[in-house]
């Protein structure tokens, strides 16, 4: 399960992993911004939101790095995060948030396509010992 992938992971997998890591970095930045904007009236909500963003962001950063190193368990969290992102994109569609919705949706589809590309699946299956 933790065996190494070939010397270089296929480009679609590297792309999906890189975009996933960027998503994680964005979430960590949002956590920092949330902490910076805390006020007494929303202290509890702000702290729990910041902790969630930070934890989820760090998980995505780790998964993006580990998937290219043969840790196949990271496939699930990466794909789940993209499905959540697609749901969020659908929810934000229309009005002033349409551009954000499209951006989130496109990024999620790029990661899904990279993770489900035949070369990526083959590399992950090889690392998993199949």
What would you note in describing this structure?
75% of the residues lie in helices and 0% in strands. By secondary structure, it is mainly α. The radius of gyration is 16 Å and the shape is globular. The model has no long low-confidence stretch (mean pLDDT 92).
List low-confidence stretches. Answer: none
The overall pLDDT, averaged over residues, is: 92
Distance between the termini: 10 Å
Helix/strand class: mainly alpha
Number of H- or I-type helical stretches = 5
Quick one: biggest sheet? none
Question: What is the helix fraction of residues, given as a range?
Answer: over 70%
Whole-angstrom Rg: 16 Å
- Please report which band the strand proportion falls in: under 5%, 5-15%, 15-25%, 25-35%, 35-45% or over 45%: under 5%
Order of helices and strands: HHHHH
| Overall morphology | globular
The total of beta strands comes to: 0
Brief rundown of the structure:
The chain is built from five helices and no strands.
Helices, strands, pairings?
Layout: H1 11-36, H2 43-67, H3 75-92, H4 98-116, H5 118-127
């Amino acid at each position: 399960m933790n065996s190494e992938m070939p010397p270089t992971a296929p480009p679609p997998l590297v792309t999906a992993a890189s975009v996933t890591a960027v998503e994680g970095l964005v979430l960590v930045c949002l956590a920092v911004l949330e902490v910076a904007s805390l006020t007494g009236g929303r202290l509890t909500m702000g702290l729990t939101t910041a902790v969630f963003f930070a934890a989820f962001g760090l998980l995505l950063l780790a998964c993006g790095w580990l998937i290219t190193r043969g840790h196949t368990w990271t496939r699930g969290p990466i794909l789940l995060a993209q499905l959540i992102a697609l749901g969020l994109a659908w929810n934000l569609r229309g009005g002033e948030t349409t551009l954000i919705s499209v951006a989130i949706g496109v990024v999620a589809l790029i990661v899904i396509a990279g993770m489900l590309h035949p070369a990526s699946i083959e590399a992950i299956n090889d690392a998993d010992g199949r």
